[in-house]
User: Which sequence fits this backbone?
């Protein structure tokens, strides 16, 4: 029987290992696959390392004059008794906290009310489900439970924290904050109990209203302080 | 001369095929229409774009428990094209008998099935509600180029065999 490829001697006669040449295509494909896997693994490790390092402390950015921000209170921690050293509620329940924000003496925001808690972790988001079901567009600004504020030179806003009571709400805290003194992210303030101060810790979060939506959402969801 | 050309042809097809199999083939950008912002808030990862290669897509199928589908797609998109190109490579290098040509021709009949699978997937994703979009990436085009370039290979291989008969 004649050889089908006279120019190419039969592998079985010349070199018994010549059939290994058939593995070349498979090795090439496997090699490219291994290369992609290595690159992807390297990228994942670099991303993990970057996350582990975290953001350096000097990245904290002070608020800038001329920019718009969303301001909301993320955490309110009450003293066990009010500033008069009496139980917050008549039935010795914990306070029912909510807060208001004022700019130049005018109320610009009021939060939802929470029930019976010394540590109120406020949600910056709230969805009007009826509105959403009715088909109205759900935007970030429509779900964001925060006060929009423009940072002017020397501008201040006032925070009032109250314990919701049916007759009259008890004051937990009333303080003014200079906007330029705040920074992006969480601003933690701790207080001693004194007249008109029944709150021992407040965390005010500020996010840049001009930042891309994705970044704002990231800042909203962060739990670090 | 034909042997050299066919050898180069097979080599180019193999490189394109390997890049097509492991390179990014499609990028899916999820969108939930007017509720996108809400979903981003609830679970930001749900709206993050995902890039798949053909191979990573097969692995996802397998990880999701769709073993039969994963095996089927793997057979048509990875095993058969590699087997076909390996047979042609063997013919060029004189490593296999010319009778093997019918194996390559038989495998070649399934050449477009892999592209069909991807095309079907793209149509399915494009038809999803909520403005979800799918973008084809360079891996897909490498894969298509490999499949299309390998179509005339059967004809060239037959000529080679006839020349050497």
Assistant:
């Amino acid at each position: 029987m004649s050889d089908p490829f006279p120019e190419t001697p039969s592998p079985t006669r010349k070199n018994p290992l010549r059939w290994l040449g058939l593995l070349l295509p498979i090795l090439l494909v496997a090699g490219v696959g291994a290369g992609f896997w290595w690159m992807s693994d390297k990228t994942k490790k670099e991303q993990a390392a970057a996350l582990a390092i975290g953001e350096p402390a000097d990245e904290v950015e002070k608020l800038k004059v001329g920019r718009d921000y969303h301001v909301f209170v993320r955490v309110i921690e009450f003293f066990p008794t009010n500033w008069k050293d009496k139980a917050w509620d008549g039935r010795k329940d914990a306070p029912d906290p909510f807060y208001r924000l004022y700019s130049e003496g005018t109320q610009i925001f009021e939060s939802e009310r929470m029930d019976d808690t010394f540590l109120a972790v406020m949600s910056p988001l709230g969805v009007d489900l009826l509105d959403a079901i009715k088909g109205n567009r759900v935007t970030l600004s429509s779900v964001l439970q925060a006060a929009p504020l423009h940072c002017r030179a020397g501008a201040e806003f006032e925070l009032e924290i109250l314990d919701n009571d049916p007759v009259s709400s008890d004051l937990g805290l009333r303080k003014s904050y200079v906007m330029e003194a705040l920074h992006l992210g969480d601003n933690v303030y701790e207080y001693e109990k004194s007249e008109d101060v029944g709150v021992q810790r407040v965390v005010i979060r500020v996010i840049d209203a001009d930042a891309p939506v994705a970044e704002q959402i990231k800042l909203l969801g962060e739990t670090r302080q | 001369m034909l042997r050299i050309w066919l050898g180069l042809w097979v080599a180019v097809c193999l490189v394109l095929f390997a890049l097509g199999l492991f390179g990014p083939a499609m990028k899916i950008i999820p969108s939930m229409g007017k509720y996108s912002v809400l979903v981003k808030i609830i679970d930001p990862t749900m709206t993050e774009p995902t890039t798949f290669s053909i191979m990573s897509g097969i692995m996802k199928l397998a990880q999701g428990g769709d073993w039969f589908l994963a095996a089927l797609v793997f057979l048509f998109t990875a095993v058969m094209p590699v087997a076909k190109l390996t047979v042609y490579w063997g013919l060029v290098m004189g490593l296999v008998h010319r009778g093997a040509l019918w194996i390559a021709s038989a495998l070649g009949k399934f050449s477009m099935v892999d592209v069909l699978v991807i095309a079907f997937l793209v149509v399915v994703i494009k038809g999803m509600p909520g403005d979800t979009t799918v973008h084809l990436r360079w891996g897909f085009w490498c894969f298509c180029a490999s499949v299309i370039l390998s179509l005339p290979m059967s004809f060239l291989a037959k000529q080679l065999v006839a020349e050497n008969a």
Notes: The interface with chain B takes residues 4-11, 18-19, 21-22, 24-26, 28-29, 31-33, 35-37, 125, 127, 132, 135, 137-140, 143, 213-214, 217-218, 220-221 of chain A (CB under 8 Å). Residues 72 and 146 of chain A are 5 Å apart (CA to CA).
